[in-house]
Amino acid sequence: MTVAVVYFSEQGTTHQVAEAIADGVSQQSGQCQLLRVTDDQIVDGRFTSAHYIDTIDQCDAVIFGSPTYMGGPAAQFKAFCDASSDCWDNQSWSGKLAAGFTVGSNPSGDQLATLQYFSILAAQHGMLWVNLQMPSDHEQNSENKLNAQMGFAGVIPGDVISRSDRVGAASLGSRVAQLCKRYTAVN
């Protein structure tokens, strides 16, 4: 079972979350492909990496990630989403599992809107959304301190993600991998 994590990270904190998610996938004996969207893959506003699209076509599940900027995903990630329209035309991602993660520098930075964007993208592609399923104890060191059930939402005001955010992100990767094993065994 293979999970693709496609994400944009400008300052590296979203990349750290993607690595923690990959660790969670590995805990379930899954393989994880980290696909970091970069500025040089965007030409005239369009995402141009056919390799990423081909890799996602071959994966069993996809986890989308971006920092939350101004209440939504970064423009670079949105360029990737726009380029997925050919996959929508031929429904090549239909039936795959999907999940999402985001980070922001403030606890009330509208991260939920970014997760909702990812879930709508998945729905348009006919994918099956996987939620976080992690209760919050509302403590500062909670693995789900924002109580986001739609996906993983972290608050990262500095350069390094906290241990609790690393655990929460790994939990999302592990959950997607567990459900992917169960889903592929039935199909």
TL;DR of this structure?
With 187 residues, the protein is α/β, with parallel strands linked by helices. It has helices at residues 13-27, 50-58, 75-83, 85-90, 111-124, 163-186; strands at 2-8, 31-37, 42-43, 46-47, 61-69, 72-73, 97-104, 128-129, 152-155.
Could you give the topology of this structure?
Layout: E1 2-8, H1 13-27, E2 31-37, E3 42-43, E4 46-47, H2 50-58, E5 61-69, E6 72-73, H3 75-83, H4 85-90, E7 97-104, H5 111-124, E8 128-129, E9 152-155, H6 163-186
Parallel strand pairs: 1-2, 1-5, 5-7, 7-8, 7-9
Antiparallel strand pairs: 3-4, 5-6
Helical content class: 40-55%
Largest sheet: 7 strands, mixed
The CATH topology label is: Rossmann fold
CATH class membership: Alpha Beta
Name of the CATH architecture: 3-Layer(aba) Sandwich
- How many helices? The count is 6
CATH superfamily: Flavodoxin domain
Q: Unreliable stretches, pLDDT < 50, 5 or more residues?
A: none
**Distance from first to last alpha carbon:** 13 Å
Q: What is the number of E strands?
A: 9
**What integer value in Å does the Rg equal?**
15 Å
Secondary structure category: alpha/beta
Shape: globular
Mean pLDDT: 90
Give, in order, the helices and strands: EHEEEHEEHHEHEEH
Domain module count: 1
Strand content: 15-25%
Please tell me about this protein's structure.
With 187 residues, the protein is α/β, with parallel strands linked by helices. The chain has one domain: Rossmann fold, CATH 3.40.50. 41% of the residues lie in helices and 23% in strands. The protein is built from six helices and nine strands. Strands 1, 2, 5, 6, 7, 8 and 9 form a seven-stranded mixed beta sheet that branches. A two-stranded antiparallel ribbon has the order 3-4. Helix 1 links the parallel strand 1 and strand 2. Helix 1 crosses helix 6. It is globular. 48% of the residues are buried. The mean pLDDT is 90.
